[in-house]
Write a structure and sequence with these properties.
Shape: globular
Number of helices: 4
Strand order of the largest sheet: 1-2
Structural class: alpha+beta
Number of strands: 6
């Protein structure tokens, strides 16, 4: 994914904006990335990707997503129709893939395990 491609498709928040926010603000929890123009607060598709970027950014690693914008958008469309993730930040079947409910709680995970913040 290129820096100017959108990670949050609901609110058109680019990878560049998210990376700059993480580098500048150093949010202590991934859920705080939502303060960057509302990223992750729409349909919930991008939440695992935001978590991935947060982990990499806080570790001082390059913040990138190894998926084409076309595959990302197509997978999001499938997610919006089925509430099932076929691809996560690490690729097909990787972390972030699987069924989730409307709150972004993954298959086999309870809301209590997730805590009060959706993107942590």
């Amino acid at each position: 994914m290129d820096p100017d491609d959108d990670v949050c498709l609901c609110f058109h928040v680019s990878l560049r904006k998210i990376a700059a926010y993480i580098e500048r603000e150093r949010p202590v929890a991934a859920s705080l990335v939502s303060e960057c123009l509302g990223a992750g607060t729409g349909c919930g598709w991008c939440v695992p990707f935001l978590k991935h970027l947060h982990v990499r950014g806080m570790a001082g690693e390059p913040m990138d997503l190894r998926i084409s914008p076309e595959a990302y958008a197509t997978s999001r469309l499938t997610y919006r129709q089925t509430q099932r993730r076929e691809v996560g930040p690490e690729g097909a079947g990787g972390p972030g893939a699987g069924s989730v409910d409307s709150r972004g709680v993954a298959e086999g995970e309870t809301a209590r395990e997730r805590g009060p913040h959706a993107a942590e």
